[in-house]
Amino acid sequence: MASEPQGGLTEYITHHLQHFKPVQVSGNFWSVHIDSLTVSLALGVVFCLWFWSKVRKATSGVPSKGQAFVEIVLEFVDGQVKDVFHGDRRFLGPLALTIFVWVLLMNAMDLLPVDLLPMITHQFGASHFRAVPTADLNLTFAMSLTVFLLVIFYSFKAKGFGGYMHELFTAPFGAHPLLWIPNFLLNLVELVSKPVSLSMRLFGNMYAGELVFMLIAGLFSAGSWMLFGMGIIGYTVWEIFHILIIGIQAFIFMVLTIVYISMAHDHH
Question: Catalytic annotation on 197?
Answer without folding.
Answer: yes
